[in-house]
Amino acid sequence: MAVQPLRMTPRIPLCGWNCRKPCTAASTDSAAPRAFTTNIVGLAVFCAVSQVLARVVAVCGSEELTNRDLAYYYWNQYYSFQNAYGMYMAYLMDQTKALEDQMSPDGENTWQQMLLNSGVEMFQSIASLSQKAQAAQFQLSADSEQQLTDLKDTCEQSAAYFGYDSGDAYIQSVFGPSASVDGYVEFCRKLLLTTEYLQSLVDAEAISDADVAAYYDEHAEDYAAQRVEKIDKPMVSIRHILIQPEGEQDEDGNYSDEAWTAAEQKANEVLQEWEAGDKTEERFGELAQKYSADGSATSGGLYENVYPGQMVTEFNDWCFEDGRDVGDYGLVKTEYGYHIIYFCAASEQVYWYETAKADLQRERASQLEQDAMDEFDFSEDLTQAAIFDVLAESRAQNAAAQAEAEAAQSETTDNADASATDEP
Fold it and tell me: For residue 46, is pLDDT > 70?
Protein backbone atom coordinates (compact mmCIF):
# COMPACT_ATOMS: atom_id res chain seq x y z
CA MET A 1 0.00 0.00 0.00
CA ALA A 2 1.24 3.51 -0.76
CA VAL A 3 1.84 5.81 2.18
CA GLN A 4 1.79 9.51 1.39
CA PRO A 5 1.55 12.63 3.54
CA LEU A 6 -1.69 14.57 3.13
CA ARG A 7 -2.30 18.17 2.15
CA MET A 8 -3.11 19.94 5.36
CA THR A 9 -4.13 23.15 7.06
CA PRO A 10 -1.53 25.39 8.75
CA ARG A 11 -0.48 25.07 12.36
CA ILE A 12 -2.29 27.00 15.07
CA PRO A 13 -1.08 28.16 18.51
CA LEU A 14 -1.00 26.04 21.65
CA CYS A 15 -4.43 27.22 22.77
CA GLY A 16 -5.81 24.92 20.08
CA TRP A 17 -5.55 21.86 22.38
CA ASN A 18 -8.91 20.39 23.27
CA CYS A 19 -8.61 18.10 26.27
CA ARG A 20 -11.24 15.84 27.71
CA LYS A 21 -9.58 16.30 31.12
CA PRO A 22 -7.98 19.65 32.23
CA CYS A 23 -4.27 19.54 32.99
CA THR A 24 -2.79 20.98 36.20
CA ALA A 25 -1.35 24.01 34.42
CA ALA A 26 -4.67 24.88 32.83
CA SER A 27 -7.81 26.52 34.08
CA THR A 28 -9.52 24.43 36.76
CA ASP A 29 -12.97 25.45 35.53
CA SER A 30 -14.52 22.08 34.58
CA ALA A 31 -16.79 23.81 32.08
CA ALA A 32 -13.84 25.11 30.06
CA PRO A 33 -12.94 22.73 27.21
CA ARG A 34 -9.49 24.22 26.56
CA ALA A 35 -6.48 22.85 28.40
CA PHE A 36 -4.32 25.92 27.81
CA THR A 37 -4.99 29.62 28.23
CA THR A 38 -3.19 32.55 26.65
CA ASN A 39 -1.58 33.66 29.94
CA ILE A 40 0.46 30.44 30.22
CA VAL A 41 3.98 31.07 28.96
CA GLY A 42 7.48 29.65 28.95
CA LEU A 43 8.18 26.70 31.24
CA ALA A 44 4.56 26.46 32.38
CA VAL A 45 3.45 25.87 28.79
CA PHE A 46 6.20 23.29 28.25
CA CYS A 47 5.27 21.43 31.43
CA ALA A 48 1.56 21.53 30.62
CA VAL A 49 2.14 20.22 27.10
CA SER A 50 4.42 17.47 28.39
CA GLN A 51 1.80 16.39 30.92
CA VAL A 52 -0.91 16.26 28.29
CA LEU A 53 1.20 14.37 25.77
CA ALA A 54 2.26 11.79 28.38
CA ARG A 55 -1.27 10.85 29.33
CA VAL A 56 -2.10 7.22 28.53
CA VAL A 57 -5.35 6.92 26.61
CA ALA A 58 -5.29 3.17 25.94
CA VAL A 59 -3.21 0.06 26.63
CA CYS A 60 -3.11 -3.06 24.46
CA GLY A 61 -0.87 -5.84 25.69
CA SER A 62 2.52 -4.26 26.26
CA GLU A 63 1.85 -1.18 24.08
CA GLU A 64 0.54 2.14 25.34
CA LEU A 65 -1.22 4.87 23.40
CA THR A 66 -0.39 8.33 24.69
CA ASN A 67 -1.69 11.63 23.39
CA ARG A 68 1.59 12.09 21.54
CA ASP A 69 0.68 9.22 19.21
CA LEU A 70 -3.11 9.53 19.43
CA ALA A 71 -2.91 12.44 16.99
CA TYR A 72 -1.80 10.14 14.16
CA TYR A 73 -4.66 7.70 14.74
CA TYR A 74 -7.33 10.36 15.27
CA TRP A 75 -6.51 12.53 12.28
CA ASN A 76 -5.88 9.48 10.12
CA GLN A 77 -9.56 8.66 10.63
CA TYR A 78 -10.59 12.19 9.69
CA TYR A 79 -8.51 12.31 6.51
CA SER A 80 -9.57 8.80 5.50
CA PHE A 81 -13.21 9.83 5.84
CA GLN A 82 -12.54 13.04 3.91
CA ASN A 83 -10.79 11.17 1.10
CA ALA A 84 -13.58 8.61 0.89
CA TYR A 85 -16.43 11.13 0.59
CA GLY A 86 -14.68 14.00 -1.19
CA MET A 87 -17.09 16.75 -2.21
CA TYR A 88 -19.95 15.00 -0.39
CA MET A 89 -18.32 15.90 2.94
CA ALA A 90 -20.24 19.17 2.84
CA TYR A 91 -23.47 17.19 3.26
CA LEU A 92 -22.13 15.25 6.24
CA MET A 93 -20.04 17.79 8.12
CA ASP A 94 -20.35 21.51 8.77
CA GLN A 95 -16.91 22.88 7.94
CA THR A 96 -17.64 26.09 9.87
CA LYS A 97 -17.98 24.27 13.21
CA ALA A 98 -15.48 22.45 15.41
CA LEU A 99 -15.77 18.66 15.33
CA GLU A 100 -16.78 18.52 18.99
CA ASP A 101 -19.67 20.93 18.32
CA GLN A 102 -21.59 18.87 15.75
CA MET A 103 -23.11 15.41 15.59
CA SER A 104 -21.77 12.70 13.34
CA PRO A 105 -23.98 10.73 10.92
CA ASP A 106 -24.51 8.00 13.54
CA GLY A 107 -26.70 10.46 15.47
CA GLU A 108 -25.24 9.36 18.82
CA ASN A 109 -21.75 10.89 18.94
CA THR A 110 -20.13 14.14 17.96
CA TRP A 111 -17.67 13.96 15.10
CA GLN A 112 -14.86 14.27 17.63
CA GLN A 113 -16.14 11.34 19.69
CA MET A 114 -16.72 9.18 16.62
CA LEU A 115 -13.21 9.84 15.26
CA LEU A 116 -11.70 9.30 18.71
CA ASN A 117 -13.47 5.95 19.09
CA SER A 118 -12.35 4.90 15.61
CA GLY A 119 -8.79 6.04 16.22
CA VAL A 120 -8.49 4.10 19.49
CA GLU A 121 -9.98 1.03 17.82
CA MET A 122 -7.39 1.39 15.05
CA PHE A 123 -4.67 1.50 17.70
CA GLN A 124 -5.99 -1.70 19.29
CA SER A 125 -5.92 -3.48 15.93
CA ILE A 126 -2.43 -2.27 14.99
CA ALA A 127 -0.99 -2.91 18.45
CA SER A 128 -2.39 -6.46 18.55
CA LEU A 129 -1.20 -7.42 15.09
CA SER A 130 2.19 -5.74 15.44
CA GLN A 131 2.90 -7.63 18.68
CA LYS A 132 1.98 -10.90 16.97
CA ALA A 133 4.12 -9.96 13.97
CA GLN A 134 7.10 -9.21 16.19
CA ALA A 135 6.63 -12.47 18.08
CA ALA A 136 6.61 -14.30 14.74
CA GLN A 137 9.72 -12.33 13.66
CA PHE A 138 7.80 -11.10 10.63
CA GLN A 139 9.74 -8.60 8.51
CA LEU A 140 8.51 -5.82 6.27
CA SER A 141 8.98 -6.32 2.54
CA ALA A 142 11.79 -4.51 0.75
CA ASP A 143 9.21 -2.43 -1.15
CA SER A 144 7.65 -1.19 2.07
CA GLU A 145 11.04 -0.38 3.56
CA GLN A 146 11.78 1.67 0.46
CA GLN A 147 8.43 3.45 0.78
CA LEU A 148 9.31 4.47 4.31
CA THR A 149 12.72 5.71 3.21
CA ASP A 150 11.18 7.70 0.38
CA LEU A 151 8.47 9.05 2.67
CA LYS A 152 10.95 11.21 4.59
CA ASP A 153 12.16 12.80 1.36
CA THR A 154 8.58 13.26 0.20
CA CYS A 155 7.70 15.13 3.39
CA GLU A 156 10.61 17.51 2.93
CA GLN A 157 9.77 18.07 -0.73
CA SER A 158 6.11 18.67 0.07
CA ALA A 159 7.06 21.11 2.81
CA ALA A 160 9.08 23.16 0.35
CA TYR A 161 6.31 23.03 -2.25
CA PHE A 162 3.60 24.20 0.17
CA GLY A 163 5.78 26.83 1.82
CA TYR A 164 6.65 25.19 5.15
CA ASP A 165 10.03 25.64 6.80
CA SER A 166 10.61 21.91 7.28
CA GLY A 167 9.10 18.48 6.93
CA ASP A 168 8.24 18.56 10.65
CA ALA A 169 6.28 21.81 10.17
CA TYR A 170 4.41 20.23 7.28
CA ILE A 171 3.48 17.13 9.31
CA GLN A 172 2.53 19.27 12.33
CA SER A 173 -0.02 21.14 10.22
CA VAL A 174 -1.80 17.81 9.72
CA PHE A 175 -1.48 16.15 13.11
CA GLY A 176 -0.65 18.95 15.56
CA PRO A 177 2.48 20.40 17.18
CA SER A 178 3.55 17.14 18.84
CA ALA A 179 3.94 15.41 15.46
CA SER A 180 7.14 14.99 13.50
CA VAL A 181 8.35 13.33 10.32
CA ASP A 182 10.01 10.59 12.37
CA GLY A 183 6.82 10.02 14.37
CA TYR A 184 4.71 9.89 11.22
CA VAL A 185 7.10 7.45 9.53
CA GLU A 186 7.01 5.22 12.62
CA PHE A 187 3.20 5.29 12.56
CA CYS A 188 3.31 4.30 8.88
CA ARG A 189 5.82 1.55 9.66
CA LYS A 190 3.41 -0.05 12.13
CA LEU A 191 0.54 0.35 9.68
CA LEU A 192 2.49 -1.32 6.86
CA LEU A 193 3.77 -4.07 9.15
CA THR A 194 0.29 -5.00 10.37
CA THR A 195 -1.15 -4.79 6.85
CA GLU A 196 1.47 -7.13 5.41
CA TYR A 197 1.34 -9.48 8.39
CA LEU A 198 -2.45 -9.75 8.24
CA GLN A 199 -2.25 -10.40 4.50
CA SER A 200 0.26 -13.17 5.12
CA LEU A 201 -2.19 -14.80 7.53
CA VAL A 202 -4.97 -14.59 4.94
CA ASP A 203 -2.71 -16.00 2.22
CA ALA A 204 -1.78 -18.90 4.47
CA GLU A 205 -5.40 -20.00 4.53
CA ALA A 206 -5.98 -21.66 1.17
CA ILE A 207 -9.26 -20.79 -0.55
CA SER A 208 -10.54 -23.36 -3.03
CA ASP A 209 -12.94 -22.85 -5.92
CA ALA A 210 -15.50 -24.81 -3.92
CA ASP A 211 -15.08 -22.38 -0.99
CA VAL A 212 -15.74 -19.42 -3.28
CA ALA A 213 -18.79 -21.03 -4.89
CA ALA A 214 -20.21 -21.95 -1.49
CA TYR A 215 -19.66 -18.41 -0.22
CA TYR A 216 -21.47 -16.95 -3.24
CA ASP A 217 -24.39 -19.34 -2.79
CA GLU A 218 -24.59 -18.48 0.91
CA HIS A 219 -24.91 -14.78 0.02
CA ALA A 220 -26.80 -15.22 -3.26
CA GLU A 221 -29.59 -12.78 -2.32
CA ASP A 222 -27.11 -10.02 -1.48
CA TYR A 223 -25.22 -10.55 -4.73
CA ALA A 224 -28.44 -10.56 -6.72
CA ALA A 225 -29.31 -7.18 -5.22
CA GLN A 226 -25.90 -5.94 -6.40
CA ARG A 227 -26.48 -7.39 -9.89
CA VAL A 228 -23.59 -9.80 -9.47
CA GLU A 229 -24.83 -12.80 -11.43
CA LYS A 230 -23.23 -16.24 -11.31
CA ILE A 231 -22.32 -16.28 -14.99
CA ASP A 232 -19.10 -17.99 -16.01
CA LYS A 233 -18.05 -15.46 -18.61
CA PRO A 234 -14.90 -13.36 -18.29
CA MET A 235 -14.95 -9.61 -17.89
CA VAL A 236 -14.34 -7.60 -21.05
CA SER A 237 -12.95 -4.25 -22.12
CA ILE A 238 -14.68 -2.19 -24.79
CA ARG A 239 -14.73 1.27 -26.32
CA HIS A 240 -17.91 2.95 -27.41
CA ILE A 241 -19.22 6.13 -29.00
CA LEU A 242 -22.62 7.30 -27.79
CA ILE A 243 -24.77 9.34 -30.15
CA GLN A 244 -27.81 10.68 -28.33
CA PRO A 245 -31.03 12.07 -29.81
CA GLU A 246 -31.26 15.86 -29.71
CA GLY A 247 -34.15 18.26 -29.33
CA GLU A 248 -37.10 18.59 -26.99
CA GLN A 249 -38.53 15.71 -24.98
CA ASP A 250 -42.17 15.09 -24.20
CA GLU A 251 -43.59 15.06 -20.67
CA ASP A 252 -42.45 11.45 -20.25
CA GLY A 253 -38.89 12.29 -21.25
CA ASN A 254 -39.13 10.70 -24.70
CA TYR A 255 -37.56 12.06 -27.88
CA SER A 256 -39.49 12.28 -31.11
CA ASP A 257 -39.16 9.68 -33.87
CA GLU A 258 -37.43 12.31 -35.98
CA ALA A 259 -34.81 12.87 -33.25
CA TRP A 260 -34.12 9.14 -33.04
CA THR A 261 -33.85 8.89 -36.83
CA ALA A 262 -31.37 11.76 -36.89
CA ALA A 263 -29.32 10.13 -34.13
CA GLU A 264 -29.21 6.85 -36.04
CA GLN A 265 -28.11 8.63 -39.19
CA LYS A 266 -25.31 10.45 -37.35
CA ALA A 267 -24.17 7.21 -35.69
CA ASN A 268 -23.93 5.52 -39.08
CA GLU A 269 -21.98 8.47 -40.45
CA VAL A 270 -19.48 8.21 -37.57
CA LEU A 271 -19.22 4.46 -38.08
CA GLN A 272 -18.60 4.94 -41.81
CA GLU A 273 -15.93 7.54 -41.05
CA TRP A 274 -14.11 4.98 -38.92
CA GLU A 275 -14.54 2.20 -41.48
CA ALA A 276 -13.15 4.46 -44.22
CA GLY A 277 -9.80 4.76 -42.46
CA ASP A 278 -7.60 2.52 -40.35
CA LYS A 279 -9.99 0.38 -38.32
CA THR A 280 -7.79 0.38 -35.22
CA GLU A 281 -8.65 0.72 -31.56
CA GLU A 282 -6.51 3.84 -31.31
CA ARG A 283 -8.40 5.60 -34.10
CA PHE A 284 -11.73 4.48 -32.63
CA GLY A 285 -10.69 6.16 -29.36
CA GLU A 286 -9.92 9.38 -31.23
CA LEU A 287 -13.39 9.39 -32.76
CA ALA A 288 -14.90 8.72 -29.35
CA GLN A 289 -13.19 11.81 -28.01
CA LYS A 290 -14.55 13.79 -30.94
CA TYR A 291 -18.14 12.55 -31.15
CA SER A 292 -19.24 10.63 -28.05
CA ALA A 293 -21.79 12.16 -25.66
CA ASP A 294 -20.78 9.71 -22.92
CA GLY A 295 -18.61 10.70 -19.97
CA SER A 296 -16.03 8.13 -21.09
CA ALA A 297 -15.24 10.26 -24.15
CA THR A 298 -12.22 11.81 -22.43
CA SER A 299 -10.65 8.34 -22.18
CA GLY A 300 -11.51 7.41 -25.74
CA GLY A 301 -14.78 5.73 -24.78
CA LEU A 302 -12.97 3.04 -22.80
CA TYR A 303 -14.73 0.80 -20.29
CA GLU A 304 -12.51 -1.84 -18.68
CA ASN A 305 -13.51 -4.99 -16.80
CA VAL A 306 -17.15 -4.82 -17.78
CA TYR A 307 -19.01 -7.72 -16.20
CA PRO A 308 -22.24 -9.50 -17.17
CA GLY A 309 -25.27 -7.53 -16.07
CA GLN A 310 -23.38 -4.26 -15.55
CA MET A 311 -24.66 -2.51 -18.67
CA VAL A 312 -28.19 -2.09 -20.03
CA THR A 313 -29.58 -5.20 -21.69
CA GLU A 314 -28.88 -4.44 -25.37
CA PHE A 315 -25.34 -3.24 -24.62
CA ASN A 316 -24.70 -6.19 -22.33
CA ASP A 317 -25.99 -8.74 -24.86
CA TRP A 318 -23.67 -7.43 -27.56
CA CYS A 319 -20.61 -7.50 -25.28
CA PHE A 320 -21.19 -11.05 -24.05
CA GLU A 321 -22.52 -12.66 -27.19
CA ASP A 322 -20.95 -16.08 -27.77
CA GLY A 323 -18.03 -15.91 -30.18
CA ARG A 324 -17.29 -12.23 -29.54
CA ASP A 325 -13.65 -11.55 -30.47
CA VAL A 326 -11.06 -8.76 -30.37
CA GLY A 327 -11.67 -6.22 -33.13
CA ASP A 328 -15.40 -6.88 -33.43
CA TYR A 329 -17.55 -3.78 -33.70
CA GLY A 330 -21.21 -2.97 -34.09
CA LEU A 331 -24.05 -0.48 -33.69
CA VAL A 332 -26.49 -0.98 -30.80
CA LYS A 333 -29.55 1.03 -29.81
CA THR A 334 -30.45 1.48 -26.14
CA GLU A 335 -32.68 3.86 -24.21
CA TYR A 336 -29.72 6.28 -24.08
CA GLY A 337 -29.08 6.47 -27.80
CA TYR A 338 -27.00 4.67 -30.42
CA HIS A 339 -23.75 3.05 -29.33
CA ILE A 340 -20.94 2.24 -31.71
CA ILE A 341 -19.03 -0.45 -29.81
CA TYR A 342 -15.51 -1.78 -30.34
CA PHE A 343 -14.48 -4.99 -28.54
CA CYS A 344 -10.97 -4.56 -27.10
CA ALA A 345 -10.27 -7.69 -25.03
CA ALA A 346 -11.58 -10.36 -22.72
CA SER A 347 -9.83 -10.92 -19.40
CA GLU A 348 -9.23 -14.25 -17.70
CA GLN A 349 -11.23 -13.20 -14.63
CA VAL A 350 -14.87 -14.07 -14.01
CA TYR A 351 -16.58 -11.27 -12.12
CA TRP A 352 -18.83 -13.20 -9.72
CA TYR A 353 -15.91 -15.45 -8.75
CA GLU A 354 -13.45 -12.60 -8.15
CA THR A 355 -16.05 -10.63 -6.22
CA ALA A 356 -17.01 -13.54 -3.97
CA LYS A 357 -13.37 -14.49 -3.44
CA ALA A 358 -12.43 -10.95 -2.42
CA ASP A 359 -15.39 -10.78 -0.05
CA LEU A 360 -14.46 -14.13 1.48
CA GLN A 361 -10.86 -12.97 1.95
CA ARG A 362 -12.04 -9.76 3.62
CA GLU A 363 -14.28 -11.74 5.93
CA ARG A 364 -11.43 -14.03 6.90
CA ALA A 365 -9.10 -11.07 7.37
CA SER A 366 -11.65 -9.43 9.66
CA GLN A 367 -11.91 -12.60 11.73
CA LEU A 368 -8.13 -12.98 11.93
CA GLU A 369 -7.86 -9.36 13.03
CA GLN A 370 -10.50 -9.89 15.71
CA ASP A 371 -8.77 -13.07 16.88
CA ALA A 372 -5.54 -11.12 17.30
CA MET A 373 -7.30 -8.38 19.26
CA ASP A 374 -8.90 -10.96 21.54
CA GLU A 375 -5.45 -12.32 22.49
CA PHE A 376 -4.35 -9.15 24.27
CA ASP A 377 -5.72 -7.36 27.31
CA PHE A 378 -7.07 -3.97 26.31
CA SER A 379 -8.18 -0.97 28.33
CA GLU A 380 -8.97 2.64 27.52
CA ASP A 381 -9.66 5.87 29.38
CA LEU A 382 -10.88 8.45 26.90
CA THR A 383 -11.09 11.11 29.60
CA GLN A 384 -7.30 11.30 29.23
CA ALA A 385 -7.51 12.13 25.51
CA ALA A 386 -6.40 15.52 24.20
CA ILE A 387 -7.05 16.45 20.58
CA PHE A 388 -5.26 19.36 18.93
CA ASP A 389 -7.63 21.13 16.54
CA VAL A 390 -5.57 21.49 13.37
CA LEU A 391 -8.63 22.78 11.52
CA ALA A 392 -9.27 25.81 13.77
CA GLU A 393 -7.17 28.34 11.88
CA SER A 394 -8.62 27.25 8.57
CA ARG A 395 -12.14 27.76 9.94
CA ALA A 396 -11.20 31.19 11.29
CA GLN A 397 -9.71 32.25 7.96
CA ASN A 398 -12.78 31.08 6.06
CA ALA A 399 -15.08 32.86 8.51
CA ALA A 400 -13.10 36.08 8.16
CA ALA A 401 -13.17 35.84 4.37
CA GLN A 402 -16.92 35.27 4.40
CA ALA A 403 -17.49 38.19 6.77
CA GLU A 404 -15.38 40.42 4.53
CA ALA A 405 -17.35 39.32 1.46
CA GLU A 406 -20.66 39.95 3.21
CA ALA A 407 -19.49 43.39 4.35
CA ALA A 408 -18.44 44.25 0.80
CA GLN A 409 -21.81 43.07 -0.54
CA SER A 410 -23.64 45.09 2.10
CA GLU A 411 -21.64 48.21 1.21
CA THR A 412 -22.42 47.71 -2.48
CA THR A 413 -26.14 47.38 -1.68
CA ASP A 414 -26.09 50.49 0.53
CA ASN A 415 -24.35 52.50 -2.20
CA ALA A 416 -26.87 51.32 -4.75
CA ASP A 417 -29.75 52.30 -2.46
CA ALA A 418 -28.18 55.69 -1.83
CA SER A 419 -27.78 56.30 -5.56
CA ALA A 420 -31.40 55.39 -6.15
CA THR A 421 -32.47 57.83 -3.43
CA ASP A 422 -30.40 60.67 -4.92
CA GLU A 423 -32.01 60.36 -8.35
CA PRO A 424 -34.46 63.21 -9.18
Answer: no
